[in-house]
């Protein structure tokens, strides 16, 4: 039986740390974007955001 | 692409790029000028804008400006690697792959334009899209490597932000916003040619046809004086046109005279002067000049806003 183990890339500590910091930054930016769209929509539409036919 | 690059060559490259490397792609120093001038354009514009929308609009303009910087670094990586001023940028330093910078720039451009257009109006959004296109395609891909007038025409990209800020409030373009555009547009050539004079060898090594290494030092110095005369005259215009007050007029005249003095000193500088002190002084003063003009315009707008309450 042949050994089918795929070749894995072993990350160094520096690479792992960089990857983690990039992931955190992406998370923060995405969360900020969601908040911006939410807040921006309220500010743009104001009270009329609630004024819609039921 | 983000983690592993060049797999087909079996040269596995795992990225060690940090968030600050991506931030550096946005050219934060240029971005600060973009933010500031766009904010001034917004404050000077007649009409009102919701403060939250204004903050988001400024952020979108900043990100759009930054995205164009990332696209510039993607395309110019070969030049940046040669020049001392730029060789530590993330791509030539090997921290970010070119493809990553391209994707980063394109994604941010789309989000910035859509956000600005949706939350303010599509004149502002369209102007931001045009600015990014102008800087990335017209300036970076076309003019920069083909004509010594690169900085003259390309300077328009850096001059659009106050116009975008103005459009975000008014939904249009007017003489006042065109004057704000012209101030930065006419400021760019003497500013960059002063830099090019003392970084002549850098541009030469990178084969970038800047005016000093194509037309010579003497011609560049003359052009610096000519542009400085036109700039300092136009910079006073907001006062007689009524969208800036006497404090601005006084500042524009005083600093304009100083700008001209520095430009004339550059013109009188002997050819081949290795120290290039007058050129360095003009370069430094030009930054102060532009910042001061827009700061005084902003201060006057804020004072009149407070007085109106």
SSE blueprint:
The complex is a heterodimer of chains A (54) and B (309).
Chain A: H1 13-45
Chain B: E1 4-5, E2 13-14, H1 19-25, H2 28-44, H3 51-75, H4 77-82, H5 98-119, H6 122-143, H7 150-159, H8 161-170, H9 175-198, H10 200-205, H11 211-215, H12 217-236, H13 246-268, H14 277-308
Antiparallel strand pairs in B: 1-2
Helix pairs in contact in B: 2-3, 2-8, 2-14, 3-5, 3-6, 3-8, 5-6, 6-7, 6-8, 7-9, 8-9, 9-12, 9-14, 12-13, 13-14
Descriptive overview:
The complex is a heterodimer of chains A (54) and B (309). With 54 residues, chain A is mainly alpha-helical. Chain A has a domain of 34 residues. Chain A has one helix and no strands. Chain A is elongated, with a radius of gyration of 23 Å. The N and C termini of chain A lie far apart (67 Å). In chain A, 4% of the residues are buried. Chain B has 309 residues and is mostly helical. Chain B folds into two domains: 156 residues, UbiA prenyltransferase (Tetracycline Repressor, domain 2, Orthogonal Bundle); 136 residues. Chain B contains 14 helices and two strands. In chain B, strands 1-2 form a two-stranded antiparallel ribbon. In chain B, strand 1 and strand 2 form a beta hairpin. In chain B, helix 2 packs parallel to helix 8, helix 3 packs parallel to helix 6 and helix 5 runs antiparallel to helix 6. The longest helix of chain B is centred in the C-terminal third of the chain and has 32 residues. The model of chain B has no long low-confidence stretch (mean pLDDT 91). Classes of the chains: A mainly alpha (54), B mainly alpha (309). At the A-B interface, helix 1 of A face helix 3 and helix 5 of B.
């Amino acid at each position: 039986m042949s050994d089918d183990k795929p070749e894995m890339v072993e990350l160094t500590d520096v690479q792992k740390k960089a990857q983690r910091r990039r992931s955190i930054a992406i998370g923060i930016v995405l969360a900020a974007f969601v908040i911006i769209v939410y807040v921006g929509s309220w500010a743009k539409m104001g009270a009329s955001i609630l004024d819609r036919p039921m | 692409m983000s983690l592993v690059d060049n797999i087909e060559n079996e040269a596995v490259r795992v990225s060690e790029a940090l968030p600050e490397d991506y931030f550096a792609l946005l050219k934060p120093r240029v971005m600060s000028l973009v933010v500031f001038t766009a904010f001034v354009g917004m404050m000077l514009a007649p009409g009102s804008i919701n403060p939250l929308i204004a903050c988001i609009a400024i952020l979108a303009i900043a990100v759009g400006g930054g995205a164009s910087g990332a696209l510039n670094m993607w395309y110019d990586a070969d030049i940046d690697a040669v020049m001392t001023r730029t060789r530590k940028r993330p791509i030539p330093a090997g921290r970010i792959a070119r493809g990553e910078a391209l994707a980063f720039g394109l994604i941010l451009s789309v989000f910035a334009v859509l956000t600005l257009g949706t939350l303010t109006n599509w004149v502002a959004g369209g102007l931001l899209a045009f600015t990014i296109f102008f800087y990335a395609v017209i300036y970076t891909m076309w003019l920069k490597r083909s004509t010594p007038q690169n900085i003259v025409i390309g300077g328009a990209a850096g001059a659009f932000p106050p116009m975008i800020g103005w459009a975000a409030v008014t939904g249009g373009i007017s003489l006042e916003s065109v004057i704000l555009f012209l101030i930065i547009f006419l400021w760019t050539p003497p500013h960059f040619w002063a830099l090019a004079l003392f970084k002549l060898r850098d541009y030469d090594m990178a084969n970038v046809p800047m005016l000093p290494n194509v037309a010579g030092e003497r011609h560049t110095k003359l052009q610096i004086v000519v542009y400085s005369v036109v700039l300092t005259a136009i910079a006073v215009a907001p006062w007689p046109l009524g969208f800036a007050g006497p404090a601005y007029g006084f500042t524009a005249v005083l600093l304009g005279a100083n700008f001209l003095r520095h430009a004339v000193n550059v013109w009188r500088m002997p050819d081949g002067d290795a120290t290039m002190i007058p050129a360095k002084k003009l370069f430094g003063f030009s930054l102060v000049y532009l910042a001061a003009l827009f700061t005084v315009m902003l201060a006057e707008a804020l004072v009149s806003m407070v007085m109106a309450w």
